[in-house]
Amino acid sequence: MLKGHFSLARIETCRRAFWPILLDYLSSYRDEPNRGPARHFLPMPFNPPCFASEFFFDTGVLSIIHGAMDSQVVADQRGCDVPVKGSQNQEPHVDYQRPLFAETPDLVLAPYILLVSFGLVPITVDNGAIQIAPGTHRMPRTEAKRAVDSGSATLLSVSLQLGDVLIRHPWTIHRGTPNTTDVPRPLATIRYVRRWYVDNSREVNPIPLEVWQSLTSEQQDELRFPIAQ
Asked: Which of 25, 88, 114, 174 would you label with 134, given CA atoms 20 to 30 Å apart?
């Protein structure tokens, strides 16, 4: 975790722009949750100020991403996880469960996916902090699940203040917890992958052409999203 890393002003600007989009989505789909009871995922728009290049190209974050993978990574997904009141503890799970090699699902590999998350509001135990079992991404999946079920691997709650950035391996066992407040809890996440890895596991929004053209060629090379014409 990087404490107090992103600009509070930038996050607040993003939150104010995204909030009516989120409320409009919830007014239409509150009774159709797509991540379990009262829990929603929606792709985030690339229209400024919801989009800010600082969230994607921060040198401190990218130095960790590049060190864990390589300098040729691309960002290919951007979305927001939002539990609302009535949500429950999820079953402990991993993200992107399809192994790279189906015939050897427990093969230990160097990371080829990493997730970078930050709250648009403070993330607390009351509004649904993520719980993570550290180190379980290095274990065979059946062994990791057994360790979590038995309690020998502990699920730890991760609270995030505004500006904190959580970087995690998607195969670390984790779960969402209930939001017991009356306010939706948006956690924004950007996925970085090695350039050769491709899947279509999440809905994404396209980048408006004018936003794409405002980026440098180096920044464009580090994004893999559809471009709206």
From this structure: 88
What is the per-residue pLDDT for 107? Answer: 81
Q: Mean pLDDT over residues 168-179, rounded?
A: 96
- Per-residue pLDDT at 229 exceeds 90: no
User: Topology of 8-228 in CATH?
Assistant: Jelly Rolls (2.60.120)
Q: Give the pLDDT of residue 188.
A: 98
DSSP the chain: -BTT-S-HHHHHHHHHHHHHHHHHHHHHHTTS-SSSTTEEEEEPP-STTT--HHHHH-HHHHHHHHHHS-TT-EEEEEEEEEE-BT--PPPPB-SS-S-SSTT-TT------EEEEEEESS-B-TTTT-EEE-TTGGGS-HHHHHHHHHHTSS--EEE-B-TT-BEEE-TTS-EE---B-SSS---EEEEEEE-TT-----S--PPEEHHHHHHS-HHHHHTB---EE-
Q: Residue length, the chain?
A: 229
0.85 surpassed by pTM? yes
- The pLDDT of 35-51, averaged and rounded, is 96
